[in-house]
Amino acid sequence: MSEDQKHIKQLLQKYLEAKTSLEEESQLHRFFSQAEQRLDSRLYWARDLFKYSSNEKQQHSDFEISPIEKGRSSIGFYRMAAAIAALVVTSLGVYRLEENYQERKMQEAYAETRKAFMLIADQLQMAQEQTVYLDYIDQSMNKLLK
Amino acid sequence: MSSISMDHKEFVVLFKDIEVRLYRVARRILISHEEAQDSVQEVVIKIWERKNIKAQAKNIEAYAMTMIKNHCLDRLKSKQANFLRLEDDFDDQLDSTDDTLSAQNDVEERLGAVEKVVNLLPEKQRTVWHLRDVEGYSFEEIEAIMDMNATAVRVTLSRARKEIRNQIAKQYE
Fold first, then answer.
1. What is the pLDDT of residues A30-82, one digit of tens each?
2. Which is nearest to B78 in space by CA: B45, B30, B127, B40?
3. From chain B, which residues contact A within 8 Å (Cβ)?
4. Range of B54's domain?
5. DSSP code of B82?
6. ipTM of the assembly?
7. Which of A70, A72, B84, B147 has its CA at 20 to 30 Å from residue A24's CA atom?
C-alpha cells in the first residue's frame, strides 16, 4: 500500500470519530476524486461516500424559487379581478338606474317604491320583534343576576 | 436593535445561494422534492416578512437553516399521522440495500447505493451528516443550527459516518 493510502487511512479513522477539520475533509475529497485504480478494497466505502458527498454539493444548484414575486403577483391578480368585478357591477347598476328613470312609467315607479317601503316596513316589524325578544333576554338575565 | 429593512431586490440576491442550500437540507430531511420545495418557499416568505433582517445579515444563513430544519421537523412529526407512507418509502429503500456491489457496478449505481444508506439514517444523524459533509459547515455553525452542544454534534456525526461506512462496506463483502 502506498504512503498516500496509509495517510488517508489515518485520516479516515479521524473522520469516523468526527475529529477531522474541514481542511482534512477536503483532503479526503481530493484524494478520492482522483484515486480509482489500485485502491485498497477496504477503502471502497470511502471512495463511494466521498464521491457521493462531492456530487451532492453540486446538486440542485439550479433550484430557484421566487416566492415573493409569486406572492405579489397573485395578490395583484386578485386585486385586479376584484376591481374589474366592482366596475362591472357598478356600470350595470348605473345602466339599470338610467333605464328606470327614462323608460319606466310613473306607475311602475310607484309600485316599486311601494314595494320598497313595504320591505322596509317588514324589516322594521322584524326589528321590533327582535327588540321584544331582547327584552325577554334582559329580564331573564336580571333574574339570573339576582 | 437596529432594524434597517432591505428591499426586495437585495433580499432576492442574498437568498439566491442560500435557497439552494435550504432546499438540499430540506430534501435530506423530508426526502420528497415537493415537500422540500414547499418548505423552502414557506420559510423564505416568513423570513422576508420579518423584514428587519439586514442587521443580522451575517447570520442570516444560519438563521434560515435553523428555520428550515425546524420547519421540516414539524412536517416530519405531522407526517407521523400517515406513518404508513413513510414506512413504505423506507421499506422500498431497505429492500434495495440488500444489493451487493462489486467493481463491475458503475459509478451511478454505487452513488445510488450511498444515497439509500444515508437516507436511511435516523433523522438527526442524517441532518448533521448533511450539514457537515455536503454543506461543509463548521462545528460551531452546526451546533447553532441543530441547537446541540459540541459533544452531541460530534457523537451524532461519528455515529452517522460509522453507520454509513458499515452499510456500504457490507455491500462489498
1. 999 886 668 888 999 999 999 999 999 888 777 777 544 444 445 556 666 77
2. B30
3. 8, 11-12, 16, 19-20, 23-24, 27, 37, 40-41, 44-45, 48, 101, 107, 110-111, 113-115, 118, 130, 132-136, 138, 153-155, 157-158, 161-162, 164-165, 168-169, 172
4. 1-82
5. G
6. 0.81
7. B147
Contact B114, B168 (CB under 8 A): yes
Residue in chain B nearest A65 by alpha carbon: B41
Q: Between B19, B27, B158, which is nearest A16 by CB?
A: B158
Under the banding of pLDDT at 50, 70 and 90, the label for residue B99 is low
Same domain assignment for residues B23 and B58: yes
* Length reported for chain B: 173
Mutate to test the interface with A, among B53, B107, B133, B143 (most CBs of A within 10 A): B133
The answer on B102 and B77 residing in a single domain is no
How far, in Å, CA of A50 to CA of A35, rounded? 11
> Across the interface, do B107 and A51 touch by the CB < 8 Å criterion?
yes
Residues of B in contact with A68 (CB under 8 A): 8, 11-12, 44-45, 48
Are residues B45 and A67, on separate chains, in Cβ contact within 8 Å? Answer: yes
The answer to whether residues B2 and B61 belong to one domain is yes
Residue B101 has pLDDT above 90, yes or no: no
Contact residues, chain A, for B27 at CB < 8 Å: 60
- DSSP structural state of residue B122: -
3-state secondary structure of B149: coil
